[in-house]
Amino acid sequence: MAEHVDENFVAALSAMTGPPESDRHMRDPIVPGAPLTIADVRELFDSQIGNRHLDLAARDLRGHGVGFYTIGSSGHEGNAAVARAVRLTDPALLHYRSGAFFIERAREAHGSDPLRDILLGMVAAEAEPIAGGRHKVFGRYDLNIIPQTSTIASHLPRAMGLAFAIERAARLRTTTLWPRDALVVCSFGDASANHSTALGAINAALHTAYQGLPMPLLLVCEDNGIGISTKTPAGWIQSMFSQRAGAYGLQCFSADGCDVLDTFQAASSAARWVRDTRRPALLHLRTVRLMGHAGADFEAAYRNPHEIAAELARDPLIGTARLLIESGAASRESIRAAYERKREAVARLATEAAACAQLPDAAAVMRPLTLTAHATVQAAPADDGHEADDTPLTLAQAINRALAEVLQKYSETLVFGQDVARKGGVYGVTRGLVKAFSPARVFDTILDEQSILGLALGAGLAGLLPLPEIQYLAYLHNAADQIRGEGATLQFFSQRQYRNPMVVRVASFAYQRGFGGHFHNDNAIGALRDIPGLIIAVPARPDDAAAMLAACVAAARSAGALCAFLEPIALYHVKDLHTDGDEGWIAPFPRGATVEVGQARTYGSGSALTILTFGNGLRMSLRVARRLDREGTAIRVVDLRWIAPLPVADILREAEATGKVLIVDETRRTGGVSEGVLALLADHSFRGTAVRVTSEDSFIPLGDAAAHVLVTEPDIEKAALGLLGG
After folding, report:
1. How many CB atoms lie within 10 A of CB 718?
2. Closest CA to 549 of 539, 559, 541, 557
3. What's phi and psi for 603, nearest 5 deg?
4. Which end of the chain is less packed: N or C, by CB atoms within 10 Å?
């Protein structure tokens, strides 16, 4: 249907009439009293027709088998006026139909040609400046446009977090990319406005502003009335957000997104309000969607001819052309000439882009991940003497002390989450930190994991070092896409130009006594294990906690790494290892201790059997190892410590040392850690014997029944004896 849009504009243009093109000064208002000059509107129209011809070119490229992206911005070109109304220094996270915004903002910067940039993305060319052919996104570092796929408003939590963090970074005197009076622009569609991710982020923004905290967030809902083929009820967006305006203080502005003058006036008012009050506002743009959702979308299957014709009549290009002609600022002929010149320019650029090389191999595709991984390894904190405090600590106390050291050492560090401040965490792990370091750096959040992680993603962009806490591992699944789809992909889709450093602490795993059920005893980490580039640490012993947290912090600060720090709940307050009162599980705080990401720790040097384990499995395995040792069988126990990346060299070395391997895995048999360890051994042609004991593929029940589905010491001992032939 692309040709219909093109033909419709040309036909509408031919029917327009107006006074002869005058010799008015380009600085004159386009109409009396208007905030836009003739020059302004001409430039906006140039961005709009550039966007339109990019959409037409995308369909053509796809038809010739050289283009891979056809979701267009036609009908949304009014967002060029939003770009005009805000500043270049206002970071923007854009909807995938915000093409004209991208083009217009590029007018303010002396960088690459935005038309060429977008075309390079469409053909997945390696030369594309932000994602390097890995995806078609609107993003460019010099334009302060942070790349987002924005398919389901998944970028809204990050936008909320960034709006919060701009002010907080300035308050903490942290280096940041943006001025203190910047606002965050975040655009999204009407269909996405119904997604829980969007609603949660908006709620978090309003909740923050309600408390008097700065939240300079300009939400731009580009409402075209349809999500692929599902219609948005007429008036729904206005009604939904006006309720929040009345009850919760969301300032709402509205405009005809097909009218650049109306859009600019509303966007300017909204931006001014947000900038002055440091509170969130919604700009509701009533737009149209032309040419269907994407190239493969047959719009006539769900829209009747009358509806399609009505949308074509509201084409924003027609509106801007009419404004120029009827004001005497341009003639019909000059506009037609400009439209055709732009067609030719885009066609030429499209031909050039189609000839550009794509990513040649897996190494090229994975380069951002590889560079991050390399930088992470290089980021091991320096050993400043490894002095031990004489006071033995539990795991919870050691993590608390380690957090305090990070807060003391790095002024940009924030610790936050539900109940982490006043209460000090459900298990007391963060107790005393808010008193020592102030509510500006240690604070409580609302109960919404998506918002907690979005806050962290935004804070990292603003130059802060976020250490958010998720109260339980099961709760993380509510917000996993903030790690997978947003956090882990940012370096990949920006070629490491943008990073979101983070160490997210999660109270994890099972074996709690007297408290539990499947939400508080969860051993499912499959959703994390397959996320490229994500570092997963599991500290089991107090004397490892500080070194591992320091390694994660160093990786986040220097390499922009995203780390999951999974803390075994059941080991938080354990003191004894073998017998009551032996205090074998507490240890002095090892100040200055270092450990590389992906480095295991071995206990013992026995040659009969190697046990590979982590977390709660370490304590159980060490207890089994002692019993076997007393019976004359010396074995070694290896604490993997890192689930991703796995300590490959250590695993292989310790496996070969005995030729017999028992993997003790407290996660589930399907999707658990042991699958990866067995695959690693097979990939490296391990010739010995390897077996595993795991928890069952079950949710964890309440009470003593949990022992029926979790790995137990008898399970470990039985498997070990079986391998030893005893």
Report:
1. 13
2. 539
3. -115, 120
4. C
Helix (H, G, I), strand (E, B) or coil at 73: coil
d(CA 664, CA 653): 17
Retrieve residue 260's tokens.
């650049």
CB atoms within 10 A of CB 355: 10
pLDDT of amino acid 236 = 86
Q: Is 563 helix (H, G, I), strand (E, B) or coil?
A: strand
Alpha-carbon gap, residue 685 to 679, rounded angstroms: 10
CA–CA separation, 525 and 473 (whole Å): 8
Looking at the DSSP assignment, which residues form a beta bridge with residue 688? none
> DSSP character for 536?
E
In this structure, which amino acid lies at residue 423? K
Q: Residue 333 and residue 13: Cα distance in Å, rounded?
A: 9
pLDDT reported for residue 44: 98
Is 100 within 8 Å of 77 (Cβ atoms)?
yes
* CA–CA separation, 682 and 689 (whole Å): 11
Please choose, from the candidates 106, 124, 216, the residue with its C-alpha nearest in 3D space to the C-alpha of residue 161: 216
Tell the residue number behind the tokens 């919760």, with chain if given. Answer: 248
C-beta neighbour count of 31 within 10 angstroms:
15
Contact call for residues 90 and 184 (beta carbons, < 8 A): yes
Is the separation of the CB atoms in 170 and 77 below 8 Å? no
Reference 217, options 158, 261, 159; nearest CA is 159
User: How would you classify the pairing of strands 636-639 and 610-613?
Assistant: parallel
| Per-position DSSP letters for 459-523, written without gaps between them | HHHTT-EEEEEES-HHHHGGGHHIIIIIIHHHHHHHTTSS---EEEEEEEBS--SS--STTTSB-
Q: Comparing C-alpha atoms, which of 195, 207, 201 is closest to residue 219?
A: 201
Alpha carbons 716 and 540: distance in angstroms, whole number:
18
- What is the spatial distance between Cα 103 and Cα 50, in angstroms, rounded to a whole number? 8
* 65 φψ region: left (φ > 0), alpha (ψ -120 to 50), beta (else): left
> Cα separation of 616 and 661, whole Å?
18
**Structure tokens that stand for 371 in this block:** 């560079």
Angle at 203 between CA 201 and CA 209, to 5 degrees: 105
Task: Provide Rg for the chain, Cα atoms.
Answer: 29
Q: What was the pLDDT predicted at 22?
A: 72
Query: Cα–Cα distance between 616 and 280 in angstroms, integer?
Result: 45
CA distances from 196 to 157, 294, 340, 354, 454 (A): 11, 24, 43, 38, 13
610 to 540, 649, 683, 709: CA distances (angstroms):
18, 14, 18, 24
Q: How far is CA 53 from CA 3, 58, 61, 321, 347, in A?
A: 11, 8, 12, 15, 8
CA–CA separation, 156 and 267 (whole Å): 19
Beta strands in 287-400 (DSSP E): 387-393
Read off the pTM.
0.94
Q: What is the dihedral of CA 457, 497, 345, 1, to 10 degrees?
A: -30
| Cα–Cα distance measured from residue 430 to residue 401, given in angstroms and rounded to the nearest whole number | 9
Q: Which two tokens stand for residue 712?
A: 């137990």
Residue 247 CB-density burial (10 A; 0-12 exposed, 13-18 middle, 19+ buried): exposed
Q: What local confidence, expressed as pLDDT, does residue 657 receive?
A: 97
The whole-angstrom separation of Cα 26 and Cα 667 is: 69
Query: Residue 188: what are its φ and ψ, rounded to 5°?
Result: -160, 165
**H or E stretch including 657?**
helix 648-658
Distance CA 528, CA 585 (A): 28
CA distance 54 to 71: 11
SS3 565: strand
Structure tokens at 253: 């502005």
**Helix, strand, or coil (residue 588):** strand
d(CA 337, CA 343): 10
Positions of the chain with pLDDT under 50 = none
Beta bridge partners, 92, equal 145, 185
Q: How far apart are CA 556 and CA 551, in angstroms?
A: 9
